[in-house]
Design goal:
With 439 residues, the protein is of the alpha+beta class. It folds into two domains: 287 residues, 3-Layer(aba) Sandwich (Aminopeptidase); 139 residues, 2-Layer Sandwich (Alpha-Beta Plaits), CATH 3.30.70.360. The protein has eleven helices and 20 strands. A six-stranded mixed β-sheet has the order 1-2-6-3-7-19. Strands 11-13-9-16 form a four-stranded antiparallel β-sheet, covered by helices on one side. The chain is elongated. The mean pLDDT is 95.
């Protein structure tokens, strides 16, 4: 175990920062916000390949098997394998994505599209999410190619396209799985490298975005008895919908085991209504929000239940609480009823609960405690795309990352160089431990 660690050593800070500078220099061109911004992940892939191809079997006479897989022009994925000596013994680092979320330079204190260094801070769009991880894992694979340790386990790194927006399928890891290019990774732990704060993230939430449109009747606010106020109707209806949601999806006992900070939630986040004077009761409004569902419930069942709640309220709208002596949701003399319509975004994500009994999890915890000084697994009701699909396909998915939650998708994004150095050491420890594994 010690010999592998000694051979692989620690992260070369100068080499890492140099590579990261090149990657952040491409971040403007890999912003993912279609249809306006379509990332060109191959701009990042080129720098990764420049580092690794000199150690490849095809161009450098080295041990690395390099596969640049493209399904959409300019938007490739990279699979790097350092072969071990025991067939079927494998570990992988997957999920480092080569696209980023958008950044508005006018809202940043520094240029988001170039790397700046402030002490231990490495600043720029993608430093935390996820180009910092791309650079760190590239350095790890380069070290394996250079030092050529004799390992029983094959070590595989997969750099992916199109993680930040999964509305367009057939580009990234989903397509790699579809074509069977990652099937061999089911034989060992798969570490999804795209979380933060240096601790194992053992659970994420499902997510369902919804819109509740309420139709009433417009009238002068001095004659509210002749109106159906959609704002009042929305508020009362949403209260009932939330009460029913929390009754059907209460806190689950496993949430404590997985250390979720909150149970499942359903809440409004936006309210839109037509322009008009303050003396006018509008004819409609729309409340939007989301459901964050812990992985012990089925997100598709939530969609069905929310529709049932709305249908029931519409059918029994006379029974809904009103507000004040003339507030009403039905005008019988005009044969007008207030009405609710709920709709959902197509992009539904399911939550993930990692396997806490797997060898992959135990090795990650031991490596984290060894390098960081403590191990404190956590779960979040934030959502990660793609990994539930991998778990459903039979992969032992564990998630980890060395950026900072506080800067994820935020203005003035940065990571810490010391954190990335520790991440490198954790990965070396994982490789070393699995070498000693006789199971």
């Amino acid at each position: 175990m010690g010999s592998v660690k000694d051979l692989l050593g620690h992260l070369d800070k100068d080499s890492f920062v140099s590579l990261l500078s090149k990657l952040i220099g491409e971040s403007k061109y890999v912003q993912n916000n279609p249809p306006e911004l379509i990332p060109e992940e191959d701009r990042v892939a080129k720098h990764v390949l420049d580092v690794l191809l000199p150690y490849s079997t095809t161009t450098g006479g080295g041990p690395l098997i390099v596969n640049h897989v493209t399904y959409v022009q300019g938007r490739g994925n990279i699979i790097i394998e350092y072969p071990g000596t025991v067939p079927g013994k494998i570990l992988s680092f997957v999920g480092c994505h080569m696209d980023v979320v958008t950044a508005n330079p006018d809202e940043w204190d520094f240029d988001p599209f170039s790397l700046t260094i402030d002490g231990d801070k490495l600043q720029g769009r993608g430093t935390t999410d996820c180009l910092g991880h791309v650079a760190m894992v590239t350095e790890l694979m380069q070290r394996l190619g250079e030092k050529k340790p004799k390992l029983k386990s094959s070590v595989v790194a997969v750099f992916i396209a199109s993680e930040e927006n999964s509305s367009i399928p057939g580009i990234g890891v989903d397509e790699l799985v579809k074509h069977g290019l990652l099937n061999n990774l089911k034989e060992g732990p798969l570490y999804w490298v795209d979380t933060a704060d240096k601790q194992p993230c053992i659970g994420t939430a499902g997510m369902l975005a919804w819109k509740l449109r309420t139709t009433g009747k417009l009238f002068h606010s001095g004659l509210p008895n002749k109106a159906i106020n959609p704002l009042e109707l929305s508020m009362e209806a949403l209260k009932q919908i939330q009460l029913r949601f929390y009754n059907d999806f209460p806190p689950h006992p496993k949430e404590q085991v997985y250390k979720f900070a909150t149970p499942s939630t359903m809440k409004p986040t936006q309210w839109i209504y037509p322009a008009g004077g303050v003396n006018q009761i509008p004819y409609e409004c729309t409340i939007s929000g989301d459901v964050r569902l812990t992985p012990f419930y089925d997100i598709k069942n939530v969609k069905t239940k929310l529709q049932e709640y709305v249908d029931d309220i519409n059918a029994n709208i006379e029974k809904l609480d009103t507000r004040g002596p003339v507030s009403k949701y039905v005008l019988p003399e005009e044969n007008i009823r207030g009405r609710l319509t709920i709709s959902f975004d197509e992009d539904i994500m399911s939550g993930v609960a990692c396997d806490l009994d797997s060898r992959g999890f135990h090795v990650l915890c031991k490596a984290t405690e060894e390098v960081i000084g403590y191990v404190k697994p956590y779960s979040i009701t934030g959502s990660l795309p793609l990994i539930k699909e991998l778990q459903d396909e039979g992969f032992d998915v564990q998630t980890i990352g060395y950026g900072l939650t506080s800067t994820y998708h935020a203005n003035n994004e940065y990571c810490l160089l010391t954190d990335m150095c520790q991440g490198f050491d954790v990965f070396v420890s994982i490789i070393s431990q699995l070498e000693d594994d006789t199971s």
